[in-house]
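pinned: reference chain
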Amino acid sequence: MEEFSFNRRSFVKAAGALGALATVGVGLSAQDTSAFAADAEFPKQKQGQPVEAKVDPKTGKVTVNPDVVVRYSACLGCYSSCGNRVKIDRETGRVLNVCGNPYNPNNSFPYLSFEEPLEEAYRSMSFADGKGNQLRGTVCGRGNATFDAYSQPNRITQPLKRAGKRGSGKWKPISWDQLITEVTEGGKLFADLGEDREIEGFKAIHDTTTPLDADKPNLGPKSNQLVMLGGRGDGRAGATAGRFASCFGTLNNYGHGAS
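pinned: its structure tokens
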């Protein structure tokens, strides 16, 4: 058996390279051995996830993998709205992983200042250049589960229209153009199911002068027939719904939290 020599300098160099690779979202067992060298190029992917970036353990120089896109965003797994980092395959657009955002105090302490460049995030999450793995940028179990929700095969990604009697649980996918046309124009929208009911669209009830019920003026104008009952308000969605309801002329705009 050959004698194996491994001094302190070699150990520190190897540990720095391993730390830099491990903190950018890759399991060490998934990597080619060439990835452990400080001067190695990005290894050809065999299993696991591709490396986001390489950080030189001595200089702190960051080399970003062009095949991976990282977007800093916010988690909607609960109402805390913590930050997250979404790792995306550039070629396919597929989300590979979701992890914590080192710029957000909900995910990391100490946290990075917003003025710090994105390269500093890689350095701070590595052992390179004396950083000592200062920032981990973690998310909770619910935050990690948002990735499962995204990749859920039964996730609804397009409009669904009733394809059977009410309560039958039968639906069919339709285009966004068809959805907009039908809810705007109205008409006998379920004639294909044998239903003869005329359904008023947005145009028919967009009336802020005609009373909804002449005998009950306290109900307000006809435009109050539009009732907007949204899900949880995730920032811009709630604000957009509120502006639309106000412009349309209806007071009936409710969010999930308000119910």
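why pinned: The chain has two domains: 8-151, 160-254. The helical segments are 8-22, 118-124, 141-151, 176-185, 202-205, 236-248.
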